[in-house]
Write a structure and sequence with these properties.
The chain has 419 residues and is of the alpha/beta class. It has 14 helices and 14 strands. It binds pyridoxal-5'-phosphate.
């Protein structure tokens, strides 16, 4: 159906986001390693725990005035925000304040709210080259904003490049709090798996204060750490309120999608007070009466009953196992001229092949011959670079499928380059 054929109905009959026809992630005949979401085995007990949490929440509502079914306060009910803060304090092993939390329907909505509420519509968005591809697509809907790419180093963003670019593009916004924003994923970066160093985090906060731009961090993988005892400190915590020049330049945009259920559509933002106030005054949030009053109440019960923690612990153990298996298969089966960093957490392994390898072609070959597929690197680049890279995701498939898929991928690579 063409976009101009008004008489035909738009055909979209999927039951989940990852039904890409031939590449349907739930199709047992293929191994699709492109999907950044928990798989069916990890979601299997959600029915049971959501059922329990719903009963718990309903008993609370019956005993009160059923306010969960009323429009909520624009940024979410305080008892729920506070319960998220307590949960995060325990998971981050660092204090999180209920006052800083804003309930969202996930990090994607958080990003959209940040762009529509806080950033000048003729402003500039700095992004890592490479970055989460759908965030790029969400940003490009703001057609009057300019997207500027900044290179990554092995420690995270090239801070000198960002320094020059933010100084170059800076202007005085007459309409919004910020003239520009740097969007990043400093902890277990998508797609590279990078973890920003402590030194870099400090430099980023200093620079954001100096050139007065916002740093929006997608912190959706932070609690999925595998090689350490506690999660890496999030960039938000480096923007210390006790500093003399503190105003609040960082937002931590979090989500229950990877650690509980993407379908629940519950997330949060940790915000400086000046941003929280603007979200609270936003027409969208006010008219909506909070973006997710009911489901956030259920998640608060999951937290209160200890079920959210249990689910996260179980998921983290599984992901950890998967990451270890995936790295082992790649280490043992890829030639030495193909490199990858072993991530300490998160979902992604970023493989770099020799410069003349076109990963999109390899992907096609792999799919045709072995029914295995991942995502070619240029998908994550605004400038169409990184064609010789491939992002592999460990989140969806169980250990056996994952290992099997990666063994096939490595075999396919050998045949692909030999031809
Ligand atoms: C970096 C990043 N941000 C956001 C999302 C989506 O998060 P949510 O489901 O909370 O909207 C993803 C999912 O792949 C992601 O990798």
């Amino acid at each position: 159906m063409s976009q101009n054929d008004y008489s035909e109905r738009y055909q979209q009959t999927s039951t989940h986001l990852f039904d890409f026809g031939l590449y349907n992630v739930y199709d047992n005949n293929i191994i699709n390693l492109s999907v950044g979401a928990p798989g069916p085995d990890l979601l299997a007990n959600c029915c049971e725990i959501f059922n329990e949490a719903t009963k718990h929440r309903m008993s609370l509502e019956l005993a009160s005035k059923s306010t969960l079914f009323q429009y909520g306060p624009a940024i979410g009910r305080f008892d729920i925000r506070d319960s998220f803060a307590k949960y995060l304090t325990e998971e981050y092993k660092e204090k999180v304040y209920g006052e800083d939390i804003i309930i969202t329907t996930g990090a994607t909505q958080g990003l959209h709210l940040i762009l529509s509420t806080l950033i000048d519509f003729s402003g500039v968005i700095f992004v890592d080259e490479v970055t989460y591809m759908i965030a790029l697509s969400a940003m490009s809907q703001f057609t009057t904003m300019k997207i500027v790419t900044v290179p990554l180093t092995k420690n995270g963003i090239d801070i000198e490049a960002l320094r020059k670019l933010t100084a170059q593009y800076r202007f005085e916004s007459k309409t919004k709090m910020f003239w520009g924003m740097y969007y990043t994923i400093p902890v277990f970066h998508n797609p590279t798996g990078l973890l920003y160093s402590e030194e870099l985090c400090k430099q980023l906060v200093t620079l954001s204060r100096k050139n007065d731009f916002l740093i929006a961090c997608d912190d959706v993988y932070n609690t999925l750490y595998y090689g350490m005892d506690s999660p890496p400190k999030r960039l938000y915590a480096y923007d210390d309120r006790n500093d003399a020049d503190y105003k609040g330049h960082v937002i931590s945009n979090g989500s229950f999608s990877k650690i509980l259920s993407p379908g629940a559509r519950v997330g949060w933002m940790e915000c400086p007070s000046r941003c929280a106030r603007l979200f609270d005054e936003s027409g969208i949030m006010r008219s909506g009466g909070a973006t997710n009053n009911y489901t956030s109440g259920i998640v608060a019960s999951l937290i209160e009953l200890g079920l959210a923690k249990k689910h996260l612990d179980m998921s983290r153990n599984k992901y950890k196992e998967r990451m270890a298996i995936a790295c082992k298969v790649l280490r043992e089966n890829l030639p030495k001229n193909c490199t990858f960093i072993e991530p300490e957490g998160g979902f992604f392994i970023w493989v770099t092949f020799p410069a003349d390898v076109v990963a999109a072609d390899l992907n096609r070959f792999c799919m045709e011959k072995y029914k295995v597929v991942a995502i070619a690197g240029d998908t994550f680049s605004s400038d169409g670079k990184f064609k010789n890279c491939l992002r592999i995701t460990i989140g969806f498939h169980n250990e056996e499928n994952l290992a099997n898929g990666l063994e096939k991928l490595c075999k396919a690579y050998g045949e692909f380059v030999a031809n």
